[in-house]
Each structure stands twice: as C-alpha cells, then as structure tokens.
Amino acid sequence: MQSEQFRELAILSGTNRDGTCEGFSRITLRPGDTLSIVGSTGSGKSAFINDIEVLAQGDTITGRSILINGIPPSDDMVRDPPKKPIALITQNTRAISDLTVSRFLSLHITPRDKDTTETIRTTIA
After folding, report:
1. Secondary structure (3-state) at 27
2. Is residue 71 located within the same domain as residue 98?
3. Residue 22, pLDDT score
4. Low-confidence residues of the chain, pLDDT below 50?
5. Do 85 and 9 contact (CB within 8 A), yes or no?
6. Is 0.85 surpassed by the pTM of this model?
7. How far apart are CA 26 and CA 10, in angstroms?
C-alpha cells in the first residue's frame, strides 16, 4: 500500500450510542475534499474523527470501519504513524495559537514528510 498512491478513504457506518444504525452506509473522501462535522455536544463528532484517525476496523465503540483505496488498511499502516495516509490536527490550539499557519503545519507534518515546504505550499494554496 505504501508505494500505491492514496486515492480515497471510506468510512463504513456503525451504530450510535443507542445501538441504532447510523444514517449513512458509506462516506467516501478523496484528496482535496472538505468535510464539515457539526452536531451538538455528545452527538459523536469526536468519535467520528477518532475512528478515521485510528483507521478503525469495527474495533471502536461505534463499530465503524475505515477503508483505504477500497480495502482495509494493513496492520503496518494502522500501527506505524508515518505510514498512515491521514493525520489529525485538532481544534485545540491554545498551546500554539501564536504560530503562523505554515509553522503550525510544519510541526505536524515534519515527522511524516521530508519535503515539508512543498506539502505546506500545496496545502495552503
């Protein structure tokens, strides 16, 4: 998978806190897509984001599964952060609120990507 280009990430539905099936069967995201997650406190926004970040395989409280390019991610991809095709940047920025966007991104991608300048340029563009 590592040599294969990342084309899409799919979130397969699970259940809500009451055990009810979610209102979707599959959400597919591709590079360049933007997804907004909104809801009241306790509605499951953080669980949704967490499932994506950990590349859940039915092993979280929601029972969701994540596919990369249509297949479950390898154990190596799940366990080795530099091999994950996604990264989580949270909304909690109190500790680094005085950084520029470029520096903030650099701090988060440097462990994963040797060419941070090009990645940052592409992200901000």
Report:
1. strand
2. no
3. 92
4. 1-2
5. yes
6. no
7. 6
